[in-house]
Amino acid sequence: MNSSTQSIVSRTADAYDSVPYESLPFDTAQPEHLAAIAVLLGMTPVPLTSARVLEIGCAAGGNLLPFAIKHPQAHCIGVDLSERQIRDGQAFIKQFDVQNVELLAMDICKAGDELGQFDYIICHGVFSWVPADVQQGILAACKRLLSENGMAYISYNVFPGWHCWEIGRHLMYRASAHIEDPKQRLAVAMEALRVFSEHASDSPDRPLRQILKEGLKRIEGQPWYYVLHEYLEPCNTPLYFRDFVGHCASNGLRYLGDVQFSSMFRENVASGEADTFIGQHAKHRYDEEELFDYLSGRTFRRSLIVHDHRQLNLAVEPSRLNTLFVSSTLHRVNEPVSGDAVTFRKQNNHDYKLKIRDPMGIAILDLLSAHTPHPVDLPTLLFEYWTVSGEDASKKTDQDILQGLDTIATFLLSLLKKDAVAVAFQPVMATNHISERPEAFALARAQAIIEQSWVCNTYAQVVPTEPIMKALLPMLDGTRTVQDLLAAKQQWLPANEPKQHDAASVLQRNLERMCATSLLTR
Ligand SMILES: C[S@@+](CC[C@H](N)C(=O)[O-])C[C@H]1O[C@@H](n2cnc3c(N)ncnc32)[C@H](O)[C@@H]1O
């Protein structure tokens, strides 16, 4: 590592020591998600129960914790340059006696074989913010530390989309470079962006004003620590997708696929002449995917990589869904008039609409909708389908079952390619019902005690908390009945709460919310 890289590395460590990153979980960077995508791409992932997981640039370990808590026999190691972030994470682990997570303050480039081999390596939000030598160090560490059947996840900023964003970042970085104090520096950087988004050129051949305006919109409302690190770190080096693939290859690694499964399919990105052009001129899937980036202006990628000697079998067969679990947030918006298509809409993205005409497809989506957000395996779906359509499952032959599974898998694969459904590698330990003795996810119970305005649910998603929910969560360890909770209302219901007299309905509402946000495990 040359002295300029060394100096950037120590500045990076100082930057995260002085302004730590909020250590969040990311559902699509969890081994459960990586394993599910790998199955679709023809791999046999290492079982999760006793997997070894490494996170590079783990901050305070927030992304490792949900996996570690759900898989007590697994072992997780997180490394990060910032001693302060690692200390914060270690304090949490000690306070709540988490036995299977180790956090180490170190530069990943110096990680030796003594760390052991890992089945899953996660490197989220790091690769683009380190110098080129460190990028090589990350890939070299992946090669050295990845077990034979392991897989690594690396996210990074990509061109050409980032070319637009770079204009605003360079302006912010340069206009504020003379200021030491991080908060003051950010204020000046934001002011630069605001001023220039009003006054920069708006001529059609140099539409800087428009680009900066969009940049400002993207940043406004984001937490300040995030904007500071995203835009004002000395390094922010996006790259073209094929260059990333090339760097992987020169480190003995190979691109397996994208964790956003639908992004790999041409029909989702290209149409008309662009579709024809890509069909004629892309000689390899890497060329094709890079051309998708030109079409969509994509700015961020999350790639799965494996050892380069692994054989790939990328023809995605419906049968690959047979061992997975499928979920959907689609809900129907109209009742079917006989023979007409039914429109489904995503719960969390109302712009996403899907029209289904086939009665079996409609029934399957209704069934998935009843399980939302939890994933269901295909045999269960088939059985439920037969039940709702009045067929006697006990009379079905093995042939009927195979045929039924194949039909459902083919339908669901077509939806998966359109991002209409999601897959999971295993069932999730969340419940759709409030039990007599409600139990909340152990990590959320622990996080509710510390000074933090959110907790992590069983899907490794962030759920914002309010005071009543924060006070209730630690009590939901499965030992107290709803009556016990009501009897102890002084512990969770503030004395000045206007609904003091109606504690039962406040409790019910909070339990329902926890259930709906996948915080309850029982
Ligand atoms: C933008 S933060 C991302 C944190 C977390 N992965 C996330 O996405 O929320 C980048 C992290 O990478 C760490 N980092 C940067 N260079 C590193 C290196 N050479 N070795 C280990 N960690 C590094 C930083 O200290 C910082 O915590």
TrEMBL record:
KW Zinc-finger (keyword) present: no
Any one GO molecular-function label of the UniProt entry: methyltransferase activity
GO process annotations (BP): methylation
Keyword line: Methyltransferase, Transferase
Highest taxon of source: Bacteria
Residue span(s) of domain Methyltransferase type: 54-151
Annotated signal sequence range: none
Domain PKMT C-terminal winged helix, residue spans: 436-500
Domain Methyltransferase regulatory, chain residue ranges per copy: 225-307
Regions crossing the membrane: none
PANTHER family, per database record: CYCLOPROPANE-FATTY-ACYL-PHOSPHOLIPID SYNTHASE (PTHR43667), FATTY ACID C-METHYL TRANSFERASE (PTHR43667:SF2)
Protein name, as recorded: Methyltransferase-like protein
Protein's organism: Permianibacter aggregans
